[in-house]
Amino acid sequence: GLLVLQLIQSLLLHPGHVQADSKEGMFAKTINMSNSEWSTSTNSERMADTIYVCAATCLLKKENEPCNAFSYTEESKICQTANISVLEDSTSEEAKEIYVNVNVMHNIDMRCRGGENCCLKERANFLCDKKEGDCNRDDECMHGLKCGENSCTQKYSLTGYLFDEEDDCCEPKCTQETPCATGEGICEDSTGCSNSTWVECLLCTDTELFTEDLFPEMSLYTEEDKCCRRPCIPSHQCEYLSIGC
User: Fold this and answer.
1) Cβ neighbours of residue 244 under 8 Å, at least 6 residues apart?
2) Among 63, 80, 169, 229, whose Cα sits 20 to 30 Å from the Cα of 147?
3) 138, 169 in Cβ contact below 8 A?
4) What's the CA gap between 193 and 97, in Å, rounded?
């Protein structure tokens, strides 16, 4: 559900709506948070008479203690605020019910750990990274990755959370079975590259190895991703009889 908050001079409570001073926000309830991750993100805990007061506390946080999410326990009146950087799949036993500011929710990284329809190609920030799933198609994975087959448990031995033995996880698309050409990624080592005896698997974002004029797509990769590269290219010319042109 959504909790709508608009700030004026004093708290005026309405069903599902709170008003208070010149700021406004809307919070969406989610259980895509584990208790352990929440405890590391929490930056304050205090008493609050209502969930609306707790929401206002989060919204009025200063820059030195930012807040984009809160939790509230009705019985104990405990209000916890946090500045979260990730959401994640969690089992019902591990899940923590929280409210997240909808203005930033779609910019928060989502760790997919076996949940159905967690990897969504419609939302760029919800594409799955390596070892995340359950994915259904390659375009649900980040650039340079493909959707494997039953790979979460069989290839990566992932257990717990929502993983089961039929879950498909995203994995590097450059493998020995499907090798990549120069400028393509992601590879884990040279066996994922065509002509693997002399083509190397190197950091995609190294602009000396992959110059922008020849490899314009390198900006789509992260600093840890590796791509295939032959030794001889215009910016790194080889000597006579060198292999790799």
Assistant:
1) 198, 199, 230, 231, 232, 238
2) 229
3) no
4) 45
